[in-house]
Write a structure and sequence with these properties.
This protein is of the alpha+beta class. It has three domains: about 1-75, no CATH class; about 85-120 and about 230-415, Nucleoside Triphosphate Pyrophosphohydrolase; about 125-175 and about 180-225, no CATH class. Helix content is about 40%, strand content about 25%. Strands 2, 3, 9, 10, 11, 12, 14, 15 and 16 form a nine-stranded mixed β-sheet that branches. It has a four-stranded mixed β-sheet with strand order 5-6-4-13. Strand 9 (about 230-240) and strand 10 form a beta hairpin. Helix 11 packs across helix 12. It starts with a helix and ends in a 9-residue tail after the last helix. This is Nudix hydrolase domain-containing protein. It comes from Microbacterium mitrae. Keywords: Membrane, Transmembrane, Transmembrane helix.
Length: about 425
């Protein structure tokens, strides 16, 4: 008898849970049945009132549950994460060059950068677009909704993500698989991974760091990643009179609010491929960076004299997303560029464009203290892309054997610098 009671109680609990989880399916089925039955016979008014009341009660309960859950769940940034454990794992390996810009960290992949610069890697876009994994769907979508609710100017533009592994650098020509996606995909994955999800203000439901760093403090490779891994592109432009073109990002810029950024800085887009099915990685990266340069700094295609690939790496504070950097030499001087009218569509994200003369001659540039290349007033607001671009540029100049280094020295002689 006791066993029978326990079984009946267990069955009742199970039935109640099943009804609760499928409440809307059951209600919809009942409403459909009553609607069909009403075609043939008159349905008593009290039944319609009962169904309407049940529907409103369930709706009210679900709305209340939604708002309570939303208030309980918060997204907390990790501004003090210096990724010391990750960089310690990479220490001692000459493949990795750690670049720190204020509180942020960039891992420069020296070997992959060399392969890209030599033209050994071709980019191919995967036919299937990026789809947010089911494990991230609920929280990722919620984070995205909150970000969009705070800033309706966020634009859901197209983008490209990196899907190939970095573990093995090809000796010969290799292929990098890219994937199409949108900025909303990046918000729900890459930007979501830069925060921790907490419940009731204390309990951590998901540490976003775990989405790109494993338990052994190793960076997860792109081919096994849940994230979109949107590719960032940046170029620092140099005018014909030896001045850097620098943009000041507005507070609405999602990546570098209020900081000084390279002349063109943004994300790689499908149109940067130029309609081709396979493109050299350096070529498409420079194309994307120069497109951003033209959009943000009002540069015309005819103004670009030459562009060079600088390097590739991962921005750890940005979910270890891939970043590609370049330098662009212009055929126009700063005076002419100052006279130009800026595009209206970029004023939302860029507060202004400035022209900065380096504080040191190229012979004194130090890749480990790249901010010192700029005058004192600009050093405290250097964004990571700008700091990394300056560091890689100083590295190239220090090697002293390339056309790039010779062009920098030609444009920025000893007489062109200002006092630090």
């Amino acid at each position: 008898m006791i066993s029978l009671k326990r079984r009946l109680l267990t069955s009742a609990v199970h039935l109640g849970e099943a009804i609760a989880s499928a409440r809307w399916i059951l209600l919809s089925t009942i409403l459909a049945a009553v609607g069909v039955l009403g075609i043939f016979v008159a349905i008593p008014v009290w039944i319609n009132w009962l169904l309407a009341t049940v529907s409103l009660v369930l709706l009210g309960a679900d709305v209340r549950r939604y708002w309570l859950e939303r208030r309980r769940t918060t997204f907390v940034r990790r501004p003090l994460d210096d990724f010391a454990d990750v960089t310690a794992e990479l220490a001692g390996d000459e493949r990795w060059n750690i670049i720190r810009v204020h509180a942020e960290t960039f891992v420069h992949d020296v070997d992959m950068s060399l392969r890209i610069a030599e033209g050994r890697l071709n980019a191919v876009v995967r036919p299937q677009p990026y789809a947010l994994p089911s494990d991230l769907r609920v929280l990722g979508h919620r984070y995205r909704r909150e970000r969009i609710a705070k800033d309706s100017s966020i634009f859901n533009g197209p983008g490209l993500g990196w899907r190939s592994a970095l573990a093995e650098v090809p000796d010969e020509t290799g292929t990098v698989m890219l994937v199409r996606g949108t900025f909303f995909d990046r918000l729900a994955s890459d930007y979501f991974a830069a925060v921790d999800t907490r419940r009731d203000g204390s309990e951590t439901v998901l540490a976003g760091r775990r989405l790109f760093v494993d338990r052994m403090a190793r960076l997860r490779d792109f081919d096994a990643s849940w994230l979109f891994n949107g590719i960032g592109v940046s170029t620092i432009a140099v005018t014909s009179d030896g001045m850097f073109v620098i943009t000041e990002q507005s507070v609405r810029n999602v990546g570098e609010q209020g900081l000084l950024a390279p002349s063109g800085s943004g994300s790689l887009e499908p149109k940067d491929l130029g309609g081709a099915t396979a493109v050299d990685v350096a070529t498409v990266s420079i194309a994307g960076a120069n497109r951003e340069l033209q959009e943000e700094a009002s540069i015309k295609p005819a103004d670009i004299a030459a562009s060079y690939f600088l390097g590739f790496g991962r921005w750890l504070n940005k979910a270890a997303n891939p970043e590609v950097l370049a330098v662009t030499f212009l055929s126009v001087d700063s005076h002419e560029l100052r006279q130009r009218k800026r595009r209206n569509e970029e004023r939302v994200y860029v507060d202004g464009v400035s022209f900065v003369r380096p504080a040191l001659s190229p012979a004194l540039w130090d890749p480990s203290n790249a901010e010192l290349i700029l005058p004192h007033g600009e050093r405290g607001r250097v964004s990571l892309p700008l700091g990394v671009a300056l560091s890689l540029l100083a590295r190239e100049v220090g090697l002293g054997t390339s056309e790039l280094a010779a062009e920098v020295r030609r444009r920025m002689g000893e007489s062109s610098v200002v006092e630090a």
